[in-house]
Write a structure and sequence with these properties.
The protein folds into two domains: 157 residues, Ribosomal Protein S5, domain 2 (2-Layer Sandwich), CATH 3.30.230; 137 residues, 2-Layer Sandwich (Alpha-Beta Plaits). It contains ten helices and eleven strands. The strands form two sheets. Strands 1, 2, 3, 4, 5, 6 and 11 form a seven-stranded mixed beta sheet that branches. It has a four-stranded antiparallel beta sheet with strand order 8-9-7-10, sandwiched between helices. It binds cytidine-5'-monophosphate (C5P).
């Protein structure tokens, strides 16, 4: 075992499309999930210690569990148990991805911890083994490992890489306080049941990716991507549920549209709102304008696609 520290950089994600099927008997939902990694990063560092410990730094560090419930700690435990090792590492998370924000920050930290522990312990996992461990840890964790862009099927863990023909520039408006992913899925089911459609697998059409959206991504066509995101109101089936639980997000979305965003949507289960912009200067201007509206805690620009988990 090496004594040196190992650091891994992991990206946040936005779901350019999140088509949600009916509730499955196991409590999950089948998805057509178009993941795009964006250039907001956490850095996960592991070093040998006498027991498993988690420390967190960054503006929102106090909102991150610094104990065994942290998904990064569970990642270290999972790899250690599969290889008959003691999970004795200190995991430090330098946090820049919004916490419970719908940007897969916890999943990113788990992917980062897995890659870092694999390097520290010399366990030499193949890409396939790492992806299988990621899928055990959570639906979004495999994508945090691979980054770029991918279509996620099943509960989001079965990935097909997607071509992206150019850079897209985003602004992310961070809210005060997070939203619980299970609570947002439950609210989606409740709203569907309330409409009389039913919320189970038999009542909801199977989720399918939008061909127009996939073409727009592949061609790097900004205008086409913006219109595919806004087709039918939004490409995110969880958006209505996130707005129902946090009505103030509607003000954030409207403020971004008024300030010139080409497309706006709630990121995943929220509450972070994502805005597509023309280019990097437009993203910078929109982030400043949105922050000034006080409809969000803060807003930041980030480019896409971004690489997946990367050893530093
Ligand atoms: O896989 P993960 O642990 O991130 O999922 C958290 C929760 O989100 C699940 O327990 C479930 O309530 C909900 N979920 C879902 N369908 C998915 C992914 C997540 O209902 N495809």
């Amino acid at each position: 075992m090496s004594g040196a520290a190992v650091s891994v950089r992991v990206p946040a994600k936005v779901n350019v499309q999140l088509a949600v099927g009916g509730a499955r008997p196991d409590g999950f939902h089948d998805l057509a999930n178009v993941f795009l990694a964006v250039g907001l990063y956490d850095v996960v560092t592991v070093r040998p210690a006498d027991a498993l410990r988690v420390t967190v730094s960054g503006a929102d560090a106090d909102q991150v569990p610094a104990d065994g419930t942290n998904l990064a700690a569970r990642a270290a435990e999972l790899l250690a148990s599969r290889r008959g090792l003691a999970p004795n590492v200190e995991i430090h998370i330098a946090k820049d991805i919004p916490v419970a924000g719908g940007m897969a920050g916890g999943s990113a930290d788990a992917a980062g911890a897995l890659v870092a522990c694999d390097a520290l312990w010399g366990t030499g996992c193949s890409r396939e083994e790492l992806l299988a461990l990621c899928a055990e840890l959570g639906s979004d964790v495999p994508f945090s490992l691979v980054g770029g862009a991918a279509l996620g099927r099943g509960r989001g863990e079965r990935l097909t890489p997607l071509e992206v023909g150019g850079a897209f520039h985003w602004v992310f408006a961070m809210a005060d306080g997070g939203l619980s992913t299970p609570a947002v899925y439950r609210e989606c089911d409740r709203l569907r049941a309330e409409c009389g459609r039913g919320a189970d697998v038999g009542s909801v059409p199977a989720p399918e990716p939008s061909p127009a959206l996939l073409d727009a991504l592949a061609e790097g066509d900004l205008a086409a991507l913006a219109s595919a995101i806004m087709a039918g109101g939004t490409s995110n089936d969880l958006q209505a549920a996130a707005l129902s639980l946090r009505p103030s997000l509607a003000d954030t979305l409207v403020a971004g549209e008024k300030a010139g965003a080409m497309a706006s949507l709630v990121s995943g289960s929220g509450p972070t709102c994502a805005f597509l912009t023309r280019d990097e200067p437009a993203a910078k201007a929109l982030a400043e304008a949105l922050t000034a509206t006080r409809t969000c805690r803060t807003a930041r620009g980030a480019p896409s696609p971004a690489p997946g988990a990367t050893l530093l």
